[in-house]
Amino acid sequence: MIEEPPKLQIRKTIRRPGADQIAAFRDIPTGFLCDAMEGQGALCSTIQPVGGGRDLPTHAYGPAVVAENGPAEILATMGAVHVSQPGDIIVSAVHGHKNCSAAGDRFCGIMKNRGVAAFVTDGQMRDYPGIVAAGLPAWCAGLSPNSPYSNGPGKVGFGAVVGGRYIETGDMIVADVDGVVVIPFSQIDAVIAQLAAIQELETALDAKVQNGLSEMAAIEAMLADGTAKLVD
């Protein structure tokens, strides 16, 4: 590299979905969203509610503000907090680095004070009792008391690979006890358009199960038309 990159780059214009688009994801389970995207959309299952979800809310939704940190880095997260707005979800990418925290209780407290809806990282966190006291919902890959650095380089407001999926600033994030799902900005309206039908189908199936459904009709049909068969 001929020249060192800037320590921190912050995108001037942070795109966000509209208020009505954001509100459409309130109380929507992550499974419904994956169903609306051909069964996909979730980040790696190692990213779970901090502490297993036992002490903090386990549902959050909002537009992503992506902080692309390097391993053991936090400078970009600091920049993301600086430009965050109420309702945003700050996504800290640390390239999946382990054995170092990507945020702790004070960061969570500051984010909570700014009105940030949640924090998501492919790294680990620390200061669990303080995180609980701050009250900010968070998803991470576990806990580590080791401290990060703030040397950079880092980028804010662009995109990064987190948990095996590329997340662009402005994408919708919905997280619950099952995990974290990203809805690409370009697909937000299409996903919203499917939610009512998905909820109707789920509700109908729930009612059938509660009323005693115990057969797999699709398997019976396959056996009947020969696409499946019974063998000894």
TrEMBL record:
PANTHER family reported for this sequence: 4-HYDROXY-4-METHYL-2-OXOGLUTARATE ALDOLASE 3-RELATED (PTHR33254)
Query: What is this protein's name?
Result: Putative 4-hydroxy-4-methyl-2-oxoglutarate aldolase
An example GO biological process term is: methylation
Identify the cofactor(s): a divalent metal cation; Mg(2+)
Molecular functions per Gene Ontology: metal ion binding; methyltransferase activity
Which InterPro entries does the entry link to? RraA/RraA-like, RraA/RraA-like_sf
Q: In which domain of life is the source organism classified?
A: Bacteria
Q: Which UniProt keywords apply?
A: Magnesium, Metal-binding, Methyltransferase, Transferase
* Chain residues that bind substrate: R126
What Pfam families does the database record attribute to this sequence? RraA-like
Binding residue positions for Mg(2+) = D127
**Which organism was this protein described from?**
Hoeflea phototrophica (strain DSM 17068 / NCIMB 14078 / DFL-43)
